[in-house]
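Work package 3, deliverable 3.1, input record:
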Amino acid sequence: MDEIAIGTVLLQLLVLFALAKAGGMLCERFGISSVIGEIAAGILVANTFLFGWLQMDLDMSLFEILAELGVIFLLFSVGLETPFSELRKVGRTAMLVAVLGVILPFFMGFTYILALGHGQIEALFIGAAMVATSVGITARVIKDLDLTRSIESRVIIGAAVIDDVLGMIVLAIVVGIAAGGASGILDIVLVSVTGVAFVVLVIFFGSIVIPKARVRANERRNGQADQDPVVCVKKRRFALSPLPLAIIVCLALSFAASYVGLAAIIGAFLAGMVFAEFRDRWPCHEDFHPINEFLVPFFFLFVGMSVIIASFVEVIVLAVVITVMAVFTKYIGCSLGSLKLGRGSANIIGVGMIPRGEVGIIVATIGLSMAVISPSMFSVVVFMSMATTIIAPFLLTWAFRRKYGECGPSGEPVERPGAIG
Amino acid sequence: MDEIAIGTVLLQLLVLFALAKAGGMLCERFGISSVIGEIAAGILVANTFLFGWLQMDLDMSLFEILAELGVIFLLFSVGLETPFSELRKVGRTAMLVAVLGVILPFFMGFTYILALGHGQIEALFIGAAMVATSVGITARVIKDLDLTRSIESRVIIGAAVIDDVLGMIVLAIVVGIAAGGASGILDIVLVSVTGVAFVVLVIFFGSIVIPKARVRANERRNGQADQDPVVCVKKRRFALSPLPLAIIVCLALSFAASYVGLAAIIGAFLAGMVFAEFRDRWPCHEDFHPINEFLVPFFFLFVGMSVIIASFVEVIVLAVVITVMAVFTKYIGCSLGSLKLGRGSANIIGVGMIPRGEVGIIVATIGLSMAVISPSMFSVVVFMSMATTIIAPFLLTWAFRRKYGECGPSGEPVERPGAIG
């Protein structure tokens, strides 16, 4: 790195960040998630003169680390919106939707890639990448459609959240198998147990035992601490402020996850979930927003830069097939799970769970960095994630109109997303 | 970097960040600036088993970049608190205090190091490092002492701000001379002109021309935009939000500064000054706080890690001499400049300008990275900065009591800083 002048690094950071933000803004203008624009900026850099002009070939390691930090903080923030206590409330429908919506795409993706003659581990990764619905994108589409108060919306969000946890468990298992090169049944079982045990242990202690102990301790200490958390905070003037504590816990669990052989982001996600239980005591959600606004684009830029268009052309047919498969398996699984709410609602829920967004891409990035999936297969996953994210708002608007007509569930007229107009 | 597993990097980030925050908290507990604790954490890491255990020797480039980003954003934030329009209001006393408080330390430091037989460029850097009062630390001490409303406080803050701008100009010149290896008078003049021209041009366009043009454009467009900036913001829904814009401008001017051969932080500081003029339109001060809370500790850690205690032992006497010199030259220059306010006030102002804090260290870091000052000379500057920062609150409390007795300027009893009790 010593050979690269700081000026060069500043120019790289400047151009990449500015392109990502410009791409994101452009997409938002057309009602598409800004994530798409940020990935597109990365693809642009990697496949044009910009790559050479910015001397990106000199050293990518900085951007690798920035991307990793970005995705770690992103998953922490997703976790922050997923308190375990909320998860328990979401009823059986959401659970059924989530489980069927995970099993079907995973099984179909895995089988199809295996049938094409690829290796077991590559097939496992593609299956895992097809699993998780993006909570962020789903929630955003629902908000844009002003559907937040409907029953479908609650089921979709609940299922997307459970889906994320299941996705993390699937990822933990897949990474474990890939890293250990597990061949026998016994090895696979061992790896699965490690992954599940890590997730369960962190949730058990972080989201159940500690919050309960804390409530009890507060009750013992003084009756009012619970009603008035501010008093409690003010008393400890020299206690660690929320943001540094959150960063430390996030880095610690990320490291712990990678130490036991899981993906670091699983630790970050769980750290966020644990922190969500303490949001009265250590509110840090707002503080993560600016950090993410700076770091997260580097993750999506990095994803885009890993897509080599030349190698993608060969697999365009496969990409389309996988995308169609991702759409239908998710739709069928999730609408089957919610059929008892009626066909109209099941239709909305099935469609609402389609967008894969960042989670599928994250899974593929890990596979690529472990060199267990090929660059062209990586491009397939990125295509699938981007395509499902782009079509979701259109499909959801259609499903929604089909049930409610031109009016929202509350009877008010509904604003359509900008993309439709 | 490929050889370093992401797990190792996470562990390094975790331990360094946690130690920095712990050190900072400990210092704050004793009424000392947290900066001192963060530097101490870096010294601890570099000089104990931690360095080997964390495998810091594998690749420091990531931390170099994180440190650079940290200091760039730090200087941007300092600039944000320095709108040029405010600067013009601060009157002649502050200007006189600042100018005398810059000339005396620079001249004495330069002459002394030269007299010891060191090179001209090394002497220039030490002189430059002795120049700038830390606005942040001064403001904080004044706030801790509840002196904010006094005349002395206004002069100190005003002078510290002008002082910062002068310090940046001195740094620009010194870096230019060091980089160009300017030997003739003509070269030195050329470099000085480039540095001054960059600073003056950015201030002229960013802080005078554009804000005025904007006011005029707003007046023409509609009469109310000026009174109600919110309306103005809401109208442009798809405009770039403040934080990304601020980051882009900050990176762009940092790059521009390094491109014309100045220190990148000069661009960052000026970018902050320019942005300060637009705080109604693009408020981003709050947003930078979390980013700085994450990144800035890595700068001070990096500073601490550059201090090798073994090499420092040889120069302890020099360090003490330089510190004493830094204290007295600043004190004499600044109290001379404010003598017309009376001896009591001049005493307070002279003492209040003593802390060098981060700015002197930044200058020395640049010198070290350009290999024009030796590691032991770097340690001397770090010692001087830390020592002046630690003693400033004590001295200021003393000067303050001497004039006002046990009561504040407003007649109310005053809380002493924790360090005294």
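Chain A has one domain: 83-294+310-404.
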